[in-house]
């Protein structure tokens, strides 16, 4: 609750309850015991009538909010009391009705007292306007049963309008202050409720006329009228609610459709979304965010990266560092995401979250370079909790960080990347959030529309395009490029050296000896898979810290090399310490970049070659193309060795265990480029 909203509620409560106390004192001093008894007897009837309430959700523009307007049948009774007994009685009855009607829907004393004070003031305004019309319009003074029906009908109509207007003004002001929004926007949103109140004056006039004939007549005439109004309002409310349910269902389906789109581009797990929702909603509650902002965070946890559908796949799934141009394209996902969701009429402010979740507290973020409090609070919250949970999750190329390590990184970013207040609230209350997450572990996880992508059926795989298929080419042919003479010479020397090698051990030694001429490195490791076993071992290490690197154990999926072995894809230009786990931290940090390539031939993977550099800032595109060719040459050599070992194991054993002349120098190794030798001869 904002300070302005709190002050407004306090002022209305004090003034309204003061008016109620004055009216109550006036009843005790100037009303006869019989009138006091009648008003007392009217209280149970008032409370019974207030039980038949209808609750309508309030709109905000084209959307409906969680704010509700309560309509009861008691407004007509309050107007009747004002006409029959005067303003003092109406104020007392209106305050009592306001308190108990509020109590049924909200179990919060401050809200109940505000409602009582507000309805006391509304009743006072209606009663004063009624007396004004009677006095100045018809020259009839005082309260009671002596007024003409025409005077009463017109006075009650005016009082009913004043009652409606006062009600709307009080509520519009409250909501405008609560949501820091325009008063006139809320006033406009209340206008549709006006017809619901119009029968009030007619009912009050009928009750007044019937009461002139006696209490019994009033009940016989008033009960059917009130019942008819109640049923009409209920049917209208149900029809509105039905339409709202349909709209909300369509809205949820839209969110799930967008979630499917995200999953197709950038796989998201149910568990990650649920944790981020719990973290963000918890922090938002503690920081005083409104209900709509919390709902926006729940949606934002799922949809904040929707703009990645505009990012090319080769950038989105690039394993190494981005180039400047690639990062510019990646930054656009925040703007595209905001544009996509801006076309969906969300009933909560999710678009600012999507646009600003990569802004930084120090103003060095994107897309708008917002700084500090300029960044929407909801975006600041999501930035912290999403990063924390991403750090905790396992990635293909690294293990997730521990809870303490992730907290340390978030704390280090406090005041630069993240809002310190958000970080402090999140870290301080983390045990509470984790307990809530734990409570969800035994329950079925919501799907959020995230489902595995359906595979093509076998019949569909056999379908060819009308223009026919191009001839398939291997990866090296697809990445065709022009080599300089010195590069061709380096690859040719590597090919010849591998042709001359005997057995697996000699092949890997020759390969690392010649590889530095192809692409520079300070350390190089050749990791191979045992045939049929799936276990990986270091076949050879060259360069700095070679002895320590030979002791490395590599498991599929762990570290950068393990990721390459598991995914059969190269990985370049990331933090080398992620892969150099056997080295002391200081030595691992001395390396600046790495490049790891799978050793593959004919769809079969033999291992991976890993290069680590202390001097290079990155392995360029040219380096990576050359390393692809080199890895292809190594794969051909290893494949030939294994083929020979399978068909003539005695010769292979002899070549490995003796220094005899090479047994297999007659075999040829195809270079990655079919025209490699011909280019060298021209």
Could you describe the 3D structure shown?
- The strands form two sheets. The chain has a five-stranded antiparallel sheet, with helices on both faces.
- It is 61% helix and 8% strand.
- The chain has three domains: 3-58 and 66-245, Arp2/3 complex 21 kDa subunit ARPC3 (Orthogonal Bundle); 266-440, Orthogonal Bundle (Hypothetical protein af1432), CATH 1.10.3210.10; 483-653 and 663-680, GAF domain (Beta-Lactamase).
- With 682 residues, it is of the alpha+beta class.
- The model is unreliable at 472-482 and 650-682 (pLDDT under 50).
Short descriptors:
682 residues; alpha+beta; Arp2/3 complex 21 kDa subunit ARPC3; Hypothetical protein af1432; Beta-Lactamase; 3 domains; 29 helices; 61% helix; 8% strand; disordered C terminus
């Amino acid at each position: 609750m904002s300070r302005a909203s709190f002050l407004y509620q306090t002022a209305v409560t004090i003034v309204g309850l003061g008016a109620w106390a004055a009216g109550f004192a006036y009843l005790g001093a100037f009303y006869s015991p019989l009138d006091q008894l009648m008003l007392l007897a009217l209280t149970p009837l008032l409370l019974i009538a207030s039980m038949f309430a209808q609750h309508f959700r309030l709109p905000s523009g084209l959307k409906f909010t969680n704010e509700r307007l309560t309509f009861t049948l008691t407004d007509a009774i309050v107007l009747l009391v004002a006409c029959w007994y005067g303003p003092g009685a109406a104020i007392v009855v209106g305050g009592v009705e306001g308190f108990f009607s509020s109590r049924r829907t909200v179990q919060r004393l401050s809200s109940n007292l505000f409602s009582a004070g507000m309805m006391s003031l509304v009743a006072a305004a209606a009663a004063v306007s009624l007396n004004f019309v009677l006095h100045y319009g018809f020259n009839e003074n005082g309260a009671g049963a002596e007024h003409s029906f025409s005077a009463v009908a017109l006075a009650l109509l005016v009082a009913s309008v004043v009652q409606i207007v006062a009600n709307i003004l009080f509520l519009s002001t409250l909501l405008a202050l609560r949501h820091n929004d325009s008063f006139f926007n809320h006033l406009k949103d209340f206008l549709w409720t006006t017809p619901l109140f119009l029968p009030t004056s007619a009912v009050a006039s009928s009750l007044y006329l019937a009461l002139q004939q006696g209490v019994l007549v009033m009940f016989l005439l008033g009960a059917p009228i009130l019942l008819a109004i109640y049923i009409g309002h209920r049917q209208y409310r149900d029809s509105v609610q039905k339409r709202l349910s349909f709209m909300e269902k369509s809205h949820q389906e839209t969110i799930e459709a967008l979630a499917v789109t995200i999953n197709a581009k950038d796989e998201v797990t149910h568990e990650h979304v649920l944790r981020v929702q719990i973290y963000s909603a918890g922090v938002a509650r503690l920081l005083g965010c409104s209900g709509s902002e919390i709902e926006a965070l729940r949606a934002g946890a799922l949809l904040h990266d929707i703009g990645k559908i505009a990012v090319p796949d080769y950038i989105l799934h690039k394993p190494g560092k981005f180039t400047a141009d690639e990062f510019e394209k990646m930054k656009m996902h925040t703007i595209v995401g905001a544009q996509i969701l801006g076309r969906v009429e969300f009933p909560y402010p999710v678009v600012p979250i999507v646009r600003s979740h990569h802004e930084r507290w120090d103003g060095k973020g994107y897309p708008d370079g917002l700084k500090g409090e300029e960044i929407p609070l909801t975006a600041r919250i999501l930035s912290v909790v999403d990063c924390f949970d991403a750090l905790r999750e396992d990635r293909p190329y690294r293990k997730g960080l521990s809870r303490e390590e992730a907290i340390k990184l978030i704390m280090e970013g406090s005041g630069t990347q993240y809002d310190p207040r958000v970080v402090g609230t999140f870290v301080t209350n983390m045990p509470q959030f984790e307990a809530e997450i734990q409570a969800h572990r035994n329950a079925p996880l919501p799907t959020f529309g995230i489902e595995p992508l359906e595979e093509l059926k076998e019949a569909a795989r056999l379908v060819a395009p009308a223009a026919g298929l191009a001839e398939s080419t291997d990866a090296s042919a697809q990445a065709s490029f022009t080599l300089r003479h010195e590069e061709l010479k380096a690859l040719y020397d590597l090919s010849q050296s591998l042709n001359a090698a005997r057995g697996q051990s000699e092949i890997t030694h020759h390969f690392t000896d010649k590889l530095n001429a192809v692409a520079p490195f300070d350390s190089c490791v050749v990791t191979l898979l045992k045939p049929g076993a799936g276990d990986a071992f270091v076949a050879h290490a060259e360069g700095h810290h070679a002895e320590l690197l030979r002791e490395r154990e590599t498991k599929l999926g762990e570290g950068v090399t393990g990721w390459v072995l598991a995914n059969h894809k190269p990985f370049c230009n990331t933090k080398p310490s992620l892969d150099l786990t056997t080295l002391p931290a200081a030595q691992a940090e001395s390396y600046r970049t790495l490049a790891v390539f799978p050793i593959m031939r004919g769809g079969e993977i033999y291992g991976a070659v890993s290069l680590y550099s202390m001097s290079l800032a990155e392995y360029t595109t040219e380096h990576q193309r050359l390393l692809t060719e080199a890895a292809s040459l190594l794969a051909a050599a290893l494949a030939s060795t294994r083929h020979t070992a399978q068909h003539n194991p005695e010769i292979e054993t002899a070549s490995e265990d003796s220094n005899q002349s090479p047994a297999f120098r007659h075999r040829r190794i195809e270079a990655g480029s079919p025209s490699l030798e011909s280019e060298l001869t021209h």
